[in-house]
């Protein structure tokens, strides 16, 4: 299992450009329209070149995020988990 670490939580309008393609891809998969003020968390999967996008308004709690990450064989590290709990 890979370790997932929070890169940051951004409003869409403040999202660093390098994460744009990841966000657009996830929005397309979820058929989601993104607003400038949407809160988006970017999680890096250690040992890979992959970033996982989390649209924070799609989750009720961190447990749901952890379940989603299990599907990509990743586990959220402790500090990232605590930070995301504060955003939800």
Automatic annotation (TrEMBL):
In terms of InterPro entries, this protein maps to: DUF749, MTH1880
Cited Pfam families: DUF749 (PF05370)
Protein name listed in UniProt: DUF749 domain-containing protein
Provide the species name.
Answer: Methanobacterium spitsbergense
